[in-house]
């Protein structure tokens, strides 16, 4: 196995985040996949990093790709749930798109490992990950539906095809985080602001932001 | 080695793009790295795909990471050269940023393999690739300088930090191409248009596009 990052000492206690062995396995795998690479990481290395035996790991995950699938699912679960709830919401489209982009950027920044960096793995294009790909396509679809509504409401001559861009702009957090070595917290404002502007929306961005904050609070309280 | 894509038959003739053995090696490696993965590809597999012996490959590249480095350099060489020339150009900043983004999107779409997908490899964060990373940072710096000038000229209350986004937006071509399985040629217009709009530039986009086309023609003729 190529050792690409600084070595992490194996401690006798469990140094892992998570209250369950499953969560600890995911945390260790998230670190190894993003720092040493997916292909370079064996299930044995994951078990070692958690401080459990490989047989115990197999009790939770039958194979390495099951671990990857679970990690990938985590990256979209919360924004997906929010997007589904926003569909049924009566707030204006700019407020809803702002809320979704803000929430999604925040969770991509807050995640302990930059798991979105795994989206470009060639392994993801295999049959094994078709369910994940479809789910992420659905999330992208939610973004596009909201973006189309923003463009329609903006009235101005829009940019043809711009509805695909807010989802993509949100995911640039992954590249920024990879290049800068830390989560770009400034992006929580910059990216939702820019997403509305590039759809031709000329309204007040501070208002959009405070409306989105209220909307997110309301949904969190429901 | 995991076989992740459909197998490509080894032919007796050289089926590779390129007029030199070096170019053929790069083409084969570009395919294997993007379809099977970098870690999953041996120099032996690259040599086999070209139809040469491994010893002959080593005559051109001493190690696998030298092949990766050469491929990565290719992805930024042309936009980098253009960006350097645009610095000295007297055209307005929106025209120059439009030209750079358009040219860069076009080359990312036209490249035979989606090599930008390799930017997120953990291997790139090692010492070996520091020269490439610095070079790409310089390109990003050129984008940001142009974007700052566009924001300043736009006069409107800008989005704080938006100058980092045009470079990132251009590179979303890589994710789109990976997800859609083909180059998003529509992005050649959508992305430069959106880059100007998110910087608060409210001018005529068709004019920006035709000015940028003239600028690119002029520079190509020089």
Automatic annotation (TrEMBL), chains A, B:
The protein's matches in InterPro entries, at most eight in alphabetical order, are given as:
Homeodomain-like_sf, HTH-type_TetR-like_transc_reg, HTH_TetR
Kindly state which keywords UniProt assigns to this record, in alphabetical order.
DNA-binding, Transcription, Transcription regulation
Q: Name one Pfam family in it.
A: TetR_N
**Origin, by domain of life?**
Bacteria
Basic and acidic residues bias located where? 9-21
Annotated region (Disordered), positions in chain: 1-21
| DNA-binding region (UniProt annotation) | 42-61
Annotated HTH tetR-type domain ranges read 19-79
Q: What is this protein called?
A: TetR/AcrR family transcriptional regulator
Species classification: Bacteria, Bacillati, Actinomycetota, Actinomycetes, Mycobacteriales
């Amino acid at each position: 196995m190529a050792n690409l990052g600084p070595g992490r000492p194996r401690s006798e206690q469990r140094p892992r985040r998570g209250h369950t062995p499953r969560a600890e396995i995911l945390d260790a795998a998230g670190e190894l996949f993003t720092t040493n690479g997916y292909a370079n990481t064996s299930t044995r290395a994951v078990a070692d990093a958690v401080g459990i035996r490989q047989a115990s790991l197999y009790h939770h995950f039958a194979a390495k790709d099951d671990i990857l699938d679970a990690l990938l699912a985590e990256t979209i679960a919360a924004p997906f749930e929010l997007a589904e709830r926003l569909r049924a919401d009566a707030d204006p489209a700019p407020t809803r798109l702002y809320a979704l982009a803000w929430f999604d950027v925040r969770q991509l920044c807050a995640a302990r490992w930059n798991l979105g960096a795994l989206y470009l793995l060639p392994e993801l294009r295999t049959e094994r990950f078709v369910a994940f790909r479809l789910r992420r396509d659905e999330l992208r679809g939610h973004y596009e539906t909201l973006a189309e509504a923003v463009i329609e409401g903006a009235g101005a001559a829009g940019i043809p095809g711009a509805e695909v861009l807010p989802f993509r702009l949100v995911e640039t957090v992954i590249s920024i985080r990879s290049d800068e070595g830390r989560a770009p917290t400034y992006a929580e404002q910059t990216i939702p602001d820019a997403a509305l502007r590039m759809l031709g929306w000329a309204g007040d961005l501070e208002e959009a932001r405070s409306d989105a904050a209220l909307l997110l609070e309301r949904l969190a309280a429901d």
